[in-house]
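hey so u asked for the seq, here:
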Amino acid sequence: MTTPPPPLPETPAPAAPKAPNRRPLVIGAVALAVVLMGAAAGAAYWLRTPSVGDPLAVSPEPLALGLFSAEGSTGPKQEAIALALEEINAVGGVLGHEVAAPVASEDAGDLLGADLDAVLGSHAMGGEQLLPGLLEAGTLYCGNAEPYTTTPGFGDGLYFSAIPGQDQMVRALVRLAAEDGREKIVVPHTPGSEVWLDAITAEAQAHGVEVVGVDLLRAMADPFSDATGAAELLEEGADAVIPLDPTAVVVTESLMDHGLPAEGVYLPGLPLVANPTAPLDSLGPAGSTVVRHHSGGERFPEIEWGSSDSGDMSYAAQFGGVTAALYDCVNLVALAAEAAGSVEPAEVAARMPAVSAGGRECTGYQDCVARVRAGQDIAYVGPRGPLTWDDGNLLVDVPFEVIRLHGEGEPVDTEVRTFSLGS
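ran it, structure tokens below
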């Protein structure tokens, strides 16, 4: 009998697999995601807001700006200011605060009652009421405010000329006329423009050129006669004319009618007023020379004018660099505040010359403020180039556009030229 083999030992059933502990993995994944998200957010932040360092101080209040303007809250001036503020606020503003759009008004009372640190402006209409009040209140002013542009030291250090004055524009015209070989310049004028006549006369004497003034009011009394004395002036050797008033087109046309070539016409780049049928177009006759504010480039549109309601007059937009100058003023005031560590007007004013010409050149608020916060001396360069002031805070090296007009259909030559016109 065969004995059966012993039974095989029982193999225990395999144990169920142990569930893995997923908590560390989940926590790790979340942590990694947070890190990655933080890194991405940080990268996005630095791409969006470049590092410009920390301000030297955080002011209790933001920088408060005003704008002396007849345009209200819209227009090319405001667009230029808004562009500057956009660039300033994109990198943290001034001393820890964003800078708001300026209070804009042509009413001196509105600005005097607004508790402002700095006011920007580009014309003198009403300035005789506004400026003394602002400066007496200790408010900084940057822009243009003739006739104060010819008064060194006006404002006791709180007034900064950033827009060339009419006196500087006509002095540049005299220099061009002298370079062109002109020897005797006719200057039509009114009582209100005699300060510019004085500037022309002094500049002409320095360059060996004679000046003959013509009373514009007398000439306009009978524009169809030879009240201007044009024929006699030309016989006596007059070979150029610089009209100081828009209505001086009457004298200019009379001189041209009697034989003055258009090459002898030198026009300041302010709005000319002319009958649409007159030979002078919006810039001037073909062959003439125009000097106007440097526009600063395509980002800074000119102030546009239109025809009057009666249709009797046409106006030309000649202002050019007024808007770029206001852009410069905003940047300079902001940089001076950063350098001072304060928005107090007197402290900001004390730093304005330093940030415009005190060190290494820089362009734009981002570049310049980074250097200021790093303790470096800077020289701000705006769209019109560098700004230099004399001891009275008046512009010294003045950039102008010199425009030589050619015949109809021919190109216009425009040269940006800097004139040294210190007081």
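Residues 11-48, 271-281, 305-319 have pLDDT under 50 and may be disordered. Residues 23-48 form the longest helix (26 residues).
lmk if thats what u needed
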